[in-house]
């Protein structure tokens, strides 16, 4: 009996054990391994492999991106994009080669723009793997080689540039004062120096028949009347900027809220040129000349010696006095200041102020050779080209010499160094060439700078080459043709050439600046006829004053 119970219990135990075991779930099969990621292999743009940056790309390039696996076509749309700098998508056709391991991208791009082609890790292989690392390709498109305007003669082109640029000063002149607005985005801010350039442009406009003599005289009467009766002055000198409606000072900076002797000199240079042009015996022109004389004679050039020092000072402020404390010393754009100061009938300076202050007793000499050209005066490699423009809108450098330099050689040498630097292009800026050159002060993208061989940010300003036409006629004319015919769709507008452009990181200004537009029309005219040079150098005060400083010239 006892054995039977033992047997029965063992059977029950095994039965329960068997039942429990049958309730255990079947084991879950292991997950399949993830698809292997894959990587980028090679890139070619129009058959050329050159890393991930390409310049002078055609507007319809063939871009081949190769990978170490066949790609899933359905993933390409979201993973591959081409965008310009504004973020806009560029259209592109996609095809495939090498059993889908090569994506062939055929976009339609605009000329002279920078694009980024991006492939993200959302790109998948046909086996489901993702691209290990994204790919970014920078593409800068080339200049469209087609002419943007019908061909015309060089003379006709210079006529067109002068006429179009003239509109900046006549059509866009401030309605109350007639003075030149600082830039095309200015409302009431007018520029003293730029207005001097604009007055000289007005003379060109009348002489070339862009406007009548009566209209030119009326505009000059408005300008001179405003300067004489409304414009703020300090010891006869004008500020850098004025309010064109009220004549009040528009501060150039926190401390620069008073006299600017250099800007005043540019204004007086223009006024004296106009005085010599409007030489008629009638009452209107006679009165205009008398008013210009009053403005010139009121400038206390000698007071800006700051206590009879043998140098002139650039600024004075009614609230900050001589705080800026900037001496006007050479070589830069300010030779005209000393010429006018020495020539003043009422507040002249003696020769020692010129010698010790401006010429630094010879310290402004250079004498070194840059890019095969010996530079008589100034800083290394010459500096920005406006040094050879602003003072020489009126002062004729042809055959002009003094104890320190031959100024015909100086102006040509500086310009050739600037030109040769751009041709040599040591910074490898895209687009620099014998047809595309000229470094001077201008707008840059999101700012302003004085470009030069020692401050080269990749920006060319048309005024640099155009305003150098009297010095380098062949090189400047080649640049003018290039700017107009090849870049004209982006560079030519209502008031002539826009201020500047960059072909390395493509950008074109939409701005016009009076101090850049004025030298273009004036120096084109000096190249063609010598009109402004002849007028300014005919001033009896200038003849006497410059001779007194030791200058000799067939024009004095």
UniProtKB/TrEMBL annotation:
Residues 327-540 form the Glycoamylase-like domain. Keywords: Signal. Pfam families: Big_5, Glycoamylase. Residues 53-141 form the SbsA Ig-like domain. InterPro entries: Glycoamylase-like_cons_dom (IPR019282), SbsA_Ig (IPR032812). This is Beta-glucosidase. The lineage of its organism: Bacteria, Pseudomonadati, Bacteroidota, Sphingobacteriia, Sphingobacteriales.
């Amino acid at each position: 009996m006892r054995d039977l119970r033992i047997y029965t219990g063992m059977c029950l135990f095994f039965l329960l054990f068997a039942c429990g075991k049958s309730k255990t779930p079947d084991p879950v099969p292991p997950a399949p391994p993830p698809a292997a990621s894959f990587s980028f292999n090679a890139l070619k743009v129009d058959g050329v492999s050159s890393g991930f940056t390409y310049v002078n790309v055609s507007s319809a390039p063939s871009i081949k991106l190769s990978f170490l696996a066949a790609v899933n076509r359905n993933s390409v749309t979201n993973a591959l994009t081409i965008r310009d700098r504004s973020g806009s998508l560029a259209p592109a056709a996609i095809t495939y080669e090498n059993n889908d391991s090569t994506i062939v991208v055929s976009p339609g791009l605009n000329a002279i723009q920078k694009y980024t082609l991006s492939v993200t890790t959302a790109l998948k292989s046909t086996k489901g793997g993702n691209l290990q690392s994204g790919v970014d390709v920078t593409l800068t498109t080339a200049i469209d080689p087609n002419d943007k305007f019908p061909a015309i003669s060089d003379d006709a082109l210079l006529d067109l540039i002068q006429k179009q640029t003239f509109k900046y000063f006549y059509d866009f002149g401030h309605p109350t004062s007639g003075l030149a607005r600082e830039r095309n985005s200015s409302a009431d801010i007018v520029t003293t120096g730029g207005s001097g350039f604009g007055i000289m442009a007005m003379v060109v406009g009348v002489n070339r028949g862009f406007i009548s003599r009566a209209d030119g005289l009326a505009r000059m009467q408005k300008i001179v009347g405003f300067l004489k009766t409304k414009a703020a002055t300090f010891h006869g000198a004008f500020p850098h900027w004025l309010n064109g409606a009220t004549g009040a000072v528009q501060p150039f900076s926190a401390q620069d809220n008073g006299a600017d002797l250099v800007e005043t000199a540019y204004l007086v240079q223009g006024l004296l040129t106009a005085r010599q042009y409007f030489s008629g015996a009638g009452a209107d022109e006679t009165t205009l000349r008398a008013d210009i004389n009053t403005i010139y004679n009121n400038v206390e050039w000698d007071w800006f010696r700051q206590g009879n020092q043998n140098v002139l000072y650039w600024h004075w402020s009614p609230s900050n006095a001589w705080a800026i404390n900037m001496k006007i010393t050479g070589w830069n754009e300010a030779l005209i200041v000393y010429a006018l100061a020495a020539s003043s009938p009422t507040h002249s300076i003696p020769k020692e102020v010129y010698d010790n202050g401006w010429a630094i007793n010879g310290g402004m000499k250079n004498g070194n050779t840059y890019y095969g050209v010996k530079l008589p005066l100034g800083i290394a490699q010459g500096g920005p080209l406006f040094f050879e423009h602003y003072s020489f809108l009126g002062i004729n450098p042809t055959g002009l010499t003094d104890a320190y330099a031959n100024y015909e050689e100086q102006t040509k040498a500086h310009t050739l160094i600037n030109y040769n630097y751009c041709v040599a292009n040591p910074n490898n800026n895209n687009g620099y060439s014998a047809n595309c050159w000229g470094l001077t002060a201008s707008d840059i993208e999101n700012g302003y700078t004085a470009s030069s061989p020692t401050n080269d940010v990749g920006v060319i300003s048309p005024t640099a080459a155009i305003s150098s036409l009297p010095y380098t006629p062949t090189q400047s004319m080649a640049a003018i043709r290039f700017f107009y015919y090849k870049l004209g769709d982006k560079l030519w507008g209502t008031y002539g050439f826009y201020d500047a452009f960059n072909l390395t990181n493509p950008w074109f200004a939409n701005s016009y600046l009076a101090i850049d537009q004025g030298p273009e029309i004036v120096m084109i005219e000096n190249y063609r006829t010598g009109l402004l040079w002849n007028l300014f150098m005919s001033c009896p005060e200038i003849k006497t004053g410059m001779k007194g400083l030791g200058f000799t010239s067939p024009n004095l």
